[in-house]
């Protein structure tokens, strides 16, 4: 295991070093939160792929493949579809707005201040998204060192919080590029072919399992597939962590084609995770907890050194999503919630300092929650149910329906969020009804309240059209 330890140690030290380097570039709010809005195609597509494919996509994706076979790809496949739709339909307009948060977009579109409600919902979503990847650290450190879950979470979470606090989005972007390369090599080029070859290929897997359902695309269940598509496709369209990466693109063209490339990569990653889990089921059929399938496959299947690289790839996946969600949560907290009470006229250094403090505090809170929770897929389901049920209608409605009003948006956000939370509390976290009913309630209230209230003023709509066209003034950019 000495070589495995060396590989992991080198990776972790590299992440911290990049955090330190990024600190030198994060000298303004724009540099700290959105990397100066100047990422090119390669860096943008790499960092977008890294942020959406985290611990739930890697550990959870392999676990679903272990339990359901090929059909286990649907969760991550839906994530890829979400990135494709976002990039093809909305990325150009999002880049041109030159804002920092989804809530600021809502304020521009509807006028007034609706960001407190949307900010609270988005903060809850990004916090839980941070928690899901932080939980997953424990599986890696348990395999490497036999550490208990809480210790593994604290170590992994502490590393992410450190480099995120230091350099903000610049540190996260640099580390994401490395993480993207590491997990591409580790998961796609090493673990996938080795696990399939060891299991004897598809013929060997079929012979070992003797279960045709494991090779059926719909084995996971039609209702679950529909729920994944609703939650993750729509969730990727509106999530602050995703929009914040779109804000980093240097041009609408980069955001569109870099995002489409990232979405296609996610589809490949989805199939790879399911196949790895399927091979693991054939080789190790008695794993009690599906989320332990990934670590078990790596521990028993790979030689030393290679095992360290693949574990580093898993850490890379977790850290990418965790750090992206962490800075997204801090951005929402500082810009949409706290800023309403903050004094105007703060200089660049004060803005960066405040955002660092928010990142630190929220990182510590996320680690504490992760220590208390166990199921990464459940935590991710909670996050996306709240996000999609609460905000999807108001955000997409604002982009495509001019008659939508501020009051309609606010009521739909409140009703949708409460409906989703109610079903998860009183029925079940995994209840498909949570997303169905919350979306339905949100849509109905949005349309009815918007039609019952005066239309958005022509001045607000004219300003919105100007911003969508990319005509933000220097003063508007400074005060965003």
UniProtKB/TrEMBL annotation:
<feature type="transmembrane region" description="Helical">
    <location>
        <begin position="72"/>
        <end position="95"/>
    </location>
</feature>
<feature type="transmembrane region" description="Helical">
    <location>
        <begin position="407"/>
        <end position="429"/>
    </location>
</feature>
<feature type="transmembrane region" description="Helical">
    <location>
        <begin position="355"/>
        <end position="373"/>
    </location>
</feature>
<feature type="transmembrane region" description="Helical">
    <location>
        <begin position="180"/>
        <end position="200"/>
    </location>
</feature>
<dbReference type="Pfam" id="PF00474">
    <property type="entry name" value="SSF"/>
</dbReference>
<feature type="transmembrane region" description="Helical">
    <location>
        <begin position="435"/>
        <end position="453"/>
    </location>
</feature>
<feature type="transmembrane region" description="Helical">
    <location>
        <begin position="151"/>
        <end position="173"/>
    </location>
</feature>
<feature type="transmembrane region" description="Helical">
    <location>
        <begin position="309"/>
        <end position="334"/>
    </location>
</feature>
<keyword id="KW-0813">Transport</keyword>
<feature type="transmembrane region" description="Helical">
    <location>
        <begin position="379"/>
        <end position="400"/>
    </location>
</feature>
<feature type="transmembrane region" description="Helical">
    <location>
        <begin position="44"/>
        <end position="66"/>
    </location>
</feature>
<protein>
    <submittedName>
        <fullName>Solute:Na+ symporter, SSS family</fullName>
    </submittedName>
</protein>
<keyword id="KW-0812">Transmembrane</keyword>
<feature type="transmembrane region" description="Helical">
    <location>
        <begin position="6"/>
        <end position="23"/>
    </location>
</feature>
<dbReference type="InterPro" id="IPR001734">
    <property type="entry name" value="Na/solute_symporter"/>
</dbReference>
<dbReference type="GO" id="GO:0022857">
    <property type="term" value="F:transmembrane transporter activity"/>
</dbReference>
<keyword id="KW-1133">Transmembrane helix</keyword>
<dbReference type="InterPro" id="IPR038377">
    <property type="entry name" value="Na/Glc_symporter_sf"/>
</dbReference>
<keyword id="KW-0472">Membrane</keyword>
<dbReference type="InterPro" id="IPR050277">
    <property type="entry name" value="Sodium:Solute_Symporter"/>
</dbReference>
<feature type="transmembrane region" description="Helical">
    <location>
        <begin position="220"/>
        <end position="243"/>
    </location>
</feature>
<dbReference type="GO" id="GO:0005886">
    <property type="term" value="C:plasma membrane"/>
</dbReference>
<feature type="transmembrane region" description="Helical">
    <location>
        <begin position="116"/>
        <end position="145"/>
    </location>
</feature>
<comment type="similarity">
    <text>Belongs to the sodium:solute symporter (SSF) (TC 2.A.21) family.</text>
</comment>
<feature type="transmembrane region" description="Helical">
    <location>
        <begin position="264"/>
        <end position="284"/>
    </location>
</feature>
């Amino acid at each position: 295991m000495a070589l495995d330890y060396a590989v992991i140690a080198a990776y972790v030290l590299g992440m911290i070093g990049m955090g330190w380097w990024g600190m030198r570039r994060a000298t303004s709010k724009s540099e700290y939160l959105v990397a100066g809005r100047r990422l090119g195609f390669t860096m943008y597509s790499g960092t977008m792929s890294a942020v959406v494919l985290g611990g739930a996509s890697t550990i959870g994706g392999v676990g679903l493949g272990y339990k359901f076979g090929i059909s286990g790809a649907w969760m991550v496949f839906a994530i890829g579809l979400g990135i494709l739709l976002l990039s093809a339909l909305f990325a150009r307009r999002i880049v041109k707005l030159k804002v920092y948060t989804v809530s600021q977009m809502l304020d521009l579109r509807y006028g007034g201040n609706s960001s407190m409600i949307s900010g609270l919902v988005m903060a809850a979503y990004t916090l839980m998204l941070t928690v899901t990847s932080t939980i997953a650290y424990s599986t890696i450190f348990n395999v490497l060192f036999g550490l208990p879950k809480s210790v593994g979470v604290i170590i992994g979470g502490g590393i992410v919080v450190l480099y995120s606090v230091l350099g903000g989005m610049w540190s996260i972007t640099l580390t994401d590029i490395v993480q993207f390369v590491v997990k591409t090599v580790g998961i796609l080029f090493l673990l996938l072919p080795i696990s399939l070859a060891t299991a004897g290929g598809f013929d060997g897997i079929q012979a070992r399992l003797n279960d045709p359902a494991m090779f059926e695309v719909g084995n996971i269940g039609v209702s679950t597939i529909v729920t994944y598509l609703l939650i993750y496709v729509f969730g990727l369209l509106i999530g602050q962590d995703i929009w914040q990466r779109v804000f980093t693109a240097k041009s609408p063209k980069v955001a569109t084609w870099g995002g489409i490339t990232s979405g296609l990569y996610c589809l490949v990653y989805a199939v790879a995770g399911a196949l790895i889990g399927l091979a693991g089921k054939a080789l190790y059929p008695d794993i009690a907890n599906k989320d332990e399938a990934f670590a078990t496959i790596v521990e028993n299947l790979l030689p030393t050194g290679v095992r360290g690289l693949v574990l580093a790839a898993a850490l890379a996946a977790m850290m990418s999503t965790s750090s992206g969600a962490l800075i997204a949560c801090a951005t929402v907290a500082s810009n949409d919630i706290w800023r309403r009470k903050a004094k105007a006229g703060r200089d660049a250094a004060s803005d960066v300092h405040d955002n660092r403090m928010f990142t630190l505090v929220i990182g510590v809170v996320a680690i504490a929650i992760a220590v208390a929770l166990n199921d990464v897929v459940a935590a991710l389901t909670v996050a996306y149910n709240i996000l999609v049920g609460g905000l999807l209608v108001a955000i997409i409605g604002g982009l495509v329906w001019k008659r939508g009003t501020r009051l309609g948006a606010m009521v739909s956000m409140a009703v949708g969020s409460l409906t989703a939370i109610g079903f998860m509390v009183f029925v079940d976290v995994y209840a498909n009804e949570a997303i169905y009913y919350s979306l339905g309630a949100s849509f109905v209230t949005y349309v009815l309240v918007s039609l019952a209230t005066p239309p958005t003023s022509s001045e607000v709509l004219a300003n919105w059209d100007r911003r969508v066209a990319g005509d933000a003034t220097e003063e508007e950019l400074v005060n965003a």
